[in-house]
Amino acid sequence: MNFKRLIATAVRKRLASKANVPVVIEFIKALPDLSRAFECSELLAVDLEMTGLDAKEHEIISIGWVPIIHGEIKLAQARNLLITPSKSVGDSATIHGIHDRDLADAMSLEQALETLLVALKGKVMVGHHVSLDVAFLRQAAKCIYHHSLPFSAIDTLQIEAARLARQGEHFDKQLLRLNNSADRYGLPSGDAHNALGDALTTAQLLLAQVAAIGGAHLSLKQLLKFSH
Amino acid sequence: MTEDIEIKEIKRFLQTLIPFDSLSPSALSKAATGLSIKYFSSQTKHVEIDYNNPNLYIVRTGAFEIRNKRQELIDRLGEGDYFGFQSLLTGQSVDNQVPILQDGLVYLIDQPLFSQLCNDSVDFERFFNRAHAKRLTHSSVTVDDKVPVNLTVKHLVHHSVISMTSDNRVEQAARLMSEHRISSLLIIDNEALIGVLTDRDLRSRVLAQGLDGRTTIETVMTKSPICIDINALAFEASLLMSTHNIHHLPVLSEEKVVGMITTTDIIRSQNNQPIFLIGEIARATCVDSLVNISKKIPELLQSMIASDARAEEIGRVLTLVSDSLTRRLLILGEEKFGKAPMAYSWIVFGSQGRMDQTAGSDQDNGMILQREPNDDEARYFKCLTEYVCGALDACGYVYCPGDIMAQTDKWRVDLSSWKSYFDHWVNTPSPQALLNASIFFDMRLLTGDQQLFDELQHFVNGATKGNQIFIASMAGLAVSSTPPLGFFGKFVLERDGEENKVLDLKHRGVALINDIVRVYALHEGLSQANTQQRLNQLLGRKILSKNDVKSLKDALEFIADLRLKNQGEQYLANKPATNFLKPKTVSRLLQHQLKEAFEVVHGAQKGLQSKFTRGMF
């Protein structure tokens, strides 16, 4: 265990040495302790809105997040950033409801990523189908900082899939969608397709899942295991 | 705009909650963006409350309970309910526990944010202070002094007691009266009111008789004057004055004289709508005109509901109107069939006995005859009672579906038969028999022979007081139906005729309280039939705590008030008056208070059960 952690730390240090932006260095150095219990940890539920599903081709136009500090969602520290893309949002506006005119005076991807990295420092990221979000963030980091960033992320979709599979049910993929999952726990569905709204729904879903799996004493490592 | 951190869904939810709906838009946004969210799992059993960092907890989903340290249930909470505000207001820890019945999300508002919201809205602050006081409040039911229907004698009485002893001379009395510019004097010997001396007495009993100023008061005063209780309605006072043709009434508070009320006081207080109606009743010479007059009763009811009169007072006024109708019908009946061949008492039961009649109350009455009648006499009373009951039916007080009416042979009998009925109910109580008989225990003399009634009342009190088997049976009956509250503190709705989901405010609200209080009244041998008055008399007795009495009084007034308001709405919508309330049609605050009132009923039923039915049911 310790050996693994040493390697992880070494990898991070090497990454950090390559980076020359202070925010990135800080982010990489602040290693979240994955052996901690959920109720003693700090997490950040994140959701992105994109112009499409291909990280190489499409762009991030909005990032929303809300922290979960010691098992409690803190709305006061929630953010919802809008990002000016290099190209038009095109038809994707019909999905996320964000139009080019909304983004005219929004921030740059670089500013947004930096703000996210500050908020995410020392925390574990949480997302629903988080691999997609991570792919976009990695791509963005590659473009801006010219090297990749380590994101350890808990995926509420994977947790949900594992739970449904364990119940032996044959389930439709539709059941795993964020709002359908939230429904199963009697949770209110937020403002769908709004990055902050979905981040909040994801955070609430995680709280409910943690309670269902075995309580807040679970370590982050155990939760991450569900996510792969 | 680069950011929009408001989560509309949360704001929308808060906005539906009382008292958050009273916040300014900016404060509401502050609340919606500043709160924290926790998830509580029933596996952890209790919500752990950190008293060093008190929070207002708002239930978003799930179900919770509040229990005190003796583990007694204080409240059940669901979506939109609150807890934790006690420590927020007092800064002290509270021994209450919050068991988690069903997993759920809870919103937390911390002390600094809570204070900001309190500063923003007085209503917001007041709501939590009031909730903290934890007594049911019904601020919506205020007594408006401009509405004379609500006026009680208390509002009109002159509290200065100007009195003399009866051995004084009338000239001293006259001097005292002119000094104080009053038209009457209370005559008090040894702290007891023994008479009244008025301007009119001085004129007609002294001067007109050629007596001089040295005559003692005792010889000319009106002895044992008719008095009125300080809590009576002004309207009742004026009724007493007009029936007895007097202009002064000494006012009593707990049997002690506290002042005097005069016709002038009443005229000054204006409103005469019910008085006007009763005046018309007294002048009516045939059934047809009484039927016409009674068509105005719904309007009278409406104007009282609209003027926010207390439900208790509305019930009394409506009962006084139906009492007057009955009295008038008996007079008309005796004119038609001739004078009654013997003394009788006309007694009333149920809602008229309790003086809490509402729209569409049916008639429940009976007659005590002085002795067993011969054939002619029996025929006479049959005609008289059929005439009165028939006319009451025509006036809107429909025939009792159970035939409990003086026109039914069984309920028009002599005193010893009445005694044997009660003896049977009390000493061989079967649940079914008692179910039908319970309204007889809310009886009142409407008119006729006082002595016959008093004797029956005395007999009943003697038979019931401390009679454990009978009281246990009545208590069992009183808890056989429950208030409509479900497991998660949600209303349990039933369906009305039109398939709407409704609450029955009569049978599962007001009637339950009447039943509970009747048991205590019978146990204590009280003669009152009115539930509020019974509760007043129970105040200070060991059998029921002061708090329980107050809570029951509040709960009764609250539910009865909601029922009347609901009937007022139905009337305005041209719908027939029912006891059914659609909970969605009233505000969250009223829903919340109604739940609290039902909780009081629930608690009182449990108390009744443990006091009287131990081991029997």
Q: Looking across the biggest beta sheet of chain B, what order are the strands in?
A: 1-7-2-5
Q: Portion of residues in helices of chain A?
A: 40-55%
Q: What is the CA–CA distance across the termini of chain B?
A: 69 Å
- First-residue to last-residue Cα separation of chain A: 18 Å
Number of structurally distinct domains of chain A: 1
Specify the structural class of chain A: alpha/beta
Question: Describe it for me?
Answer:
The complex is a heterodimer of chains A (228) and B (617). Chain A is 46% helix and 14% strand. In chain A, helix 6 links the parallel strand 5 and strand 6 (153-155). The mean pLDDT of chain A is 86. Chain A has a single domain (33-226), classed as 2-Layer Sandwich (Nucleotidyltransferase, domain 5), CATH 3.30.420.10. Chain A contains ten helices and six strands, in the order ααββββαααβαβαααα. Chain B has 617 residues and is an alpha+beta fold. In chain B, 48% of the residues lie in helices and 15% in strands. The longest helix of chain B has 27 residues, at 311-337. The interface between A and B is medium-sized, with 33 and 29 residues.
